[in-house]
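tmp note - DNA-binding transcriptional LysR family regulator
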Amino acid sequence: MELRQLIYFTAIAQAGTITAAAQKLHMSQPPLSLQLQKLEDELGCPLFERDTRHLHLTPAGELFYERAQAILQQCADLKREMADLQAGGRGLLRIGVVSSLSTSLLPRWVARFHEQYPQVRLELTERDSFRLLELVRSQRIDLALVRRPFSGQGLNIHPICSEPMCAVGRHHFFDGAEGSISPMALANLPLLLYRRWEPMLMRFFAESGFEPQVLCCSEDSHTVLRLAREGLGVACTPLSATCELQPGTEIHPLQAKELYSEICAVTLQGHYTGAAARNFIRFTQEEQ
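out:
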């Protein structure tokens, strides 16, 4: 059995026909059919059921496809690992980041990382958490910087730091309060919520026995902060997301251990994580 036969077999399984697989592999149909026949002869069982139009995996073919995919992935990971060894501190690092980190912690992390690893090129993608996790799963980015909670199925989660949720708004909403405040102080204030944090906040408020006055919900964390800056209401957001606020806007951490944000780096489980990604994750963890 040869590695190229696994490549041919998976291409046929994905394409559904010999003709389509041959086009994908940039080869003619007869040699591809011959290699498939040799593979089935060697294994002693058919891998496909044939009808007039398509090929369908047999039970043996489904098992073989799963194993072949794993072997090919290991080969691809091995090539990346060898390239990493040759490149040392060089290469391309593809990072996905949520908006609440892109203008706060990320610039500092990237600048200091670049000081230590100047030969690493960076490609940054800003999306919401759920889209970033899909990009990790499809291997279109090397790692994502996101906030919990999220479904971690099939992912490696690397905790970086935790920070409190804060109330953010113009000074007249807080009656001269200084430092951290009780969430109960928000009971009669117009709240501006980022949709990502709405379930956690509403659950906490319900358990605390009051119904908040939600004036606005937004899909963008920057939007709720801009509205708070304009005096429309009080935004609830993680501490690091408040870095761009202007004078006259106050920030008060909320006194509740349940109201916090955990920042994590996420990589794909079961796949090789390159040296640049590993170094970046370690660097961010050591920065805290």
